[in-house]
Design the sequence.
DNA sequence: CTGAAAGCGCTTACAG
DNA sequence: CTGAAAGCGCTTACAG
């Protein structure tokens, strides 16, 4: 027999309405009765039933999280768990809970998204990635259901999003290498269906352009899968065409694949760079210079942005998270 | 104005009770009216309100997941995300949702655990790790709140748990090495406050015992933190004492730390083994033989066990997940 | 096989 | 500043 608001009301000699107002911090309650009610709650070790509150006020204080398809190694990428940590930390602070669901493909993404939206279980949704013609974004916009997306969407209007400045981060990385004297570049990136891949590639292209270094198309590889294996395989193609002075990649897993290739083939003096600054880099003998994208902050700010908007206390529709080049 | 059970009832010319019975698959409904109700639901695109259902039948069909403290690299360990994936996949199948919360220390663990238990938001809890004198297990037992724990707890009676046979896995690994001719062993493990650390160490000890190989205490290191760094640091201690023929570790991160040490110091012909078979192993030049603990299956079976018990369809209180040595 | 009614534990206009 | 009442959208004994 659980303790309810009625039990508290009886002990405190007030009505259930009053107890409810005390719980929700309604300012119209006198200090005297507030104190009495708190005492009663304490005495009974009363905890409000979150489900009942949700039904009555039509808010669940819960956010839904869609973790995208990843048969690939992508899933061992610490990005997701780090972002989920940031999401959890901000949400805890503001009294929100987080539901997640793992999906294997876009069809499942959409299916579970609908489940979240129609079940009334969550007040808003966090999408962990952005794709070209993203069906999830499309759907949520149509339904006018609150959501935030990690990664700048194609049409950023009327959409909440957080992202790094991927163009700038890659631009700066290439510049750094040019300043070190690198004059021949290879590039390994992920699928151009992702906006962050496009942005990073554009940063690469623009930086070389500005510095007057030509891009060699056969040294530019876009791999469908972001993994150590892909990085390795891409190098086989690259080195069949020539010998770059640096291999710029869009992910540390690709970068480590490249490093493995270099080591296996006893190739020296080729710089390799990546993104994400995964912990594996730190003690690795082969040095990988990497962009720390601050995944945890991406998650943190994503939930912040969404929750602020649910409470109507936000003026902005996006946050840019600072990146940092970690040189090695 | 959301569509409710009443709207459906009106269209189908039945009472709300009947609609409810159709939704919950109550067998006492005639085929004829069942069909009519389904048609009405379809016509209105009706979706039951999960919150209202939860309040009425006192089940939320939601599980709560506590992700333990990890200021350390532990968090980049793919174990967590893989287990969470398994948990999600089984839960989806049986119509359960998953909430997670990240915690920074045992005090927070307990705090958020209480939050879950008292908010009535979840029907059961999944604990991702087991510790010595685990306060969370203690608490949940006292509250008689349903839970499952990944990792065999100290007192396994009246507790649901899933685990590998960590003793056996390590025992087999050591045996394999002995058969290959290894006659001098070093050991790097995690904190002995974790049962899996204890089990793995016992497997190590017993296997050497049986094969008549003595353990050199100064070559046995228990690190508080499971990380690449710790593995490296442990090797500094080990090699100041002598030259083992194999370094057996309880985690691939420790193993990679050891490999890095060997490489940095140009030490060859020392075998290194780990646990988890992380993806980093696959393309790494230095070969790490590893125990694949099947993290995803641990998560999968954990939610299966918990959900089966919530539905009273389970006879067992634990599952052992098979491990597999991946030789390299 | 089906319906009317009470109930799950809250919130919130409305009235005073 | 506080209470009585209706309502949130379901479920489920009870009765027929």
Sequence:
């Amino acid at each position: 027999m659980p303790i309810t608001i009625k039990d508290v009301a009886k002990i405190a000699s007030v009505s259930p309405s009053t107890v409810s107002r005390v719980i929700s911090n309604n300012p119209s309650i006198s200090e005297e009765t507030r104190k009495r009610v708190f005492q009663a709650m304490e005495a009974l070790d009363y905890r409000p039933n979150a489900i009942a509150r949700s039904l009555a006020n039509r808010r669940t204080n819960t956010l839904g999280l869609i973790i995208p398809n990843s048969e690939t190694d992508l899933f061992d990428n610490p990005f997701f768990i780090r972002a989920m940590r940031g999401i959890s930390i901000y949400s805890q602070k503001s009294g929100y809970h987080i539901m997640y669901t793992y999906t294997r493909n876009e069809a499942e993404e959409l299916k579970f998204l609908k489940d979240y939206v129609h079940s009334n279980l969550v007040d808003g949704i966090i999408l962990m990635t952005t794709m070209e013609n993203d069906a999830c974004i499309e759907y949520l916009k149509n339904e006018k259901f609150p959501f935030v997306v990690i990664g700048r969407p194609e049409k950023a209007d009327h959409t909440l999003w957080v992202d790094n400045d991927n163009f700038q981060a890659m631009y700066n990385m290439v510049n750094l290498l040019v300043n070190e004297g690198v004059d021949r570049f290879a590039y390994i990136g992920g699928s151009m269906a992702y906006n962050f891949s496009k942005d990073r590639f554009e940063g690469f292209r623009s930086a070389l352009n500005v510095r007057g270094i030509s891009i060699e198309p056969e040294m530019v590889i876009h791999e469908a899968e972001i993994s150590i294996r892909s990085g390795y395989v891409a190098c086989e193609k690259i080195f069949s065409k020539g010998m770059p002075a640096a291999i710029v990649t869009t992910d540390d897993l690709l970068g480590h694949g490249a490093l493995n290739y270099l080591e296996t083939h006893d190739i020296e003096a080729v710089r390799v760079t990546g993104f994400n600054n995964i912990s594996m880099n730190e003690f690795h003998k082969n040095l990988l210079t990497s962009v720390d994208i601050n995944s945890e902050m991406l998650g943190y700010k994503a939930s912040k942005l969404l929750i602020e908007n649910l409470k109507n206390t936000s003026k902005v529709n996006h946050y840019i998270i600072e990146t940092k080049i970690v040189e090695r």
